Amino acid sequence: VPTTSQHSYGEWQTVKESTYKENGLQKAVCTVCGSEITEELPVLTAESISLSDTKCSLETGENIILTAVCDPVAEKPEEIDWKSNNEDIATVESDAGTAKVTGRKAGTTEITASVGGKTATCVVTVTGASVQYQTHIQDYGWKQGWKMNGAVSGTSGESKRLEAIQIKLENQKYSGSIQYTTHIQDIGWEIAVLNN
Q1: Which of 66, 79, 124, 165 has the fewest CB atoms lying closer than 10 Å?
Q2: Average pLDDT, the chain
């Protein structure tokens, strides 16, 4: 604490504690005249942060809760920043010190929690129902086998008729529908059909 010919300041007193997001504040009072000086305290720096899980799996539409523990302890839940590396696969929403992770589509991404210069990561794998289909092609029959999730089934540039199509769902947990469209010779792509 500084001392001048006019002032003699006592020990620093904490007015506001630092957090991971905001600076703190301390003051000292002159023992001669009672005047005060203040000084800003730096934001906290984390020693460590860890998550309740480092790897997890969930299905599309399902959610799990992740908990972050940091040292020093965060005074407010919003001090911990949560991020999904790919929100098309999984989203993350902070909620009272925890984070709700929701599966959006099949794939793998990372959920990251950051605080005070430290980060922790959970690898999230999202699974879901798989749409599988096969087509019966002129002169080829069914021999192309089952395709899935957008892969082309049939031929291109060979003028072969699509004579039949089979569609099925694998690993289906919830009820749902299949929407499909076909490309017809001399006509092109038909309007998508929803099959309940």
Answers
A1: 165
A2: 85
